Amino acid sequence: MPAVTASPEVAAAVWKPLMFRAVIAVAFGALSVFWQHPGEAFVAYSFGAYLVLTSKSAWDFAVAPVVPSPVRGLLGGAAIAWSFCAIFMLIFASTTAMSLAGGIGLAVAGILELVVYFRHRRDLVPAREFLITGVVSTVTGLLLLVWPGLDAHGIFGVAGGGAIIIAVFLLIAAFGYRHDARERSTGR
């Protein structure tokens, strides 16, 4: 079975937003692993920043000229979900706010990413990347919502664990698209 690759034009348009999201996820995931005793406010602010920057990367992907408008709308919805939940989390900065807002934001955005995958994976090759990110975001969000009594460190660990999985997957994808985009510039 032949490998399905994105055209160099499509790859050039999407590799930077995917790389940005991967780097943000790496930073948040690493912070959650190595910061052993985070305070409630620190977790709320870092989790909120992660959601806001993730929404920026989704928006940057969505507005690329090669992205069809239905995908743009779905990813715009995901960016709005992440942003509103981050604002709520930053305003209230408590474990309850982080569990509820983070869980809802991740789950809603993950479901929207899954819709992008199932509806558009044939007409936009990079939409295939949203299967893993959608599943991981949805599961992470649901864990935050249904796991009662998590303290700040537990919320940080669950959200950071999901971020690490997304980071690894998106780093591989972004480097692949970067390679495909280079073929366009070198004319191979």
In short:
This protein is mainly α and 188 residues long. It has 6 helices and no strands. It has a single domain (17-186), classed as Serine Threonine Protein Phosphatase 5, Tetratricopeptide repeat (Alpha Horseshoe).
Which descriptors would you attach to this protein?
single chain; Serine Threonine Protein Phosphatase 5, Tetratricopeptide repeat; about 190 residues; 6 helices; mainly alpha
Report on the structure:
The structure is a single chain. This protein is mainly α and 188 residues long. It has a single domain (17-186), classed as Serine Threonine Protein Phosphatase 5, Tetratricopeptide repeat. The protein has six helices and no strands. The chain has helices at 8-34, 40-62, 69-92, 95-120, 130-146, 152-186. Helix 1 (8-34) runs antiparallel to helix 2, helix 2 packs parallel to helix 4 and helix 4 packs antiparallel against helix 5 (130-146). The radius of gyration is 17 Å and the shape is elongated. The two termini are 23 Å apart. The model has no long low-confidence stretch (mean pLDDT 92).
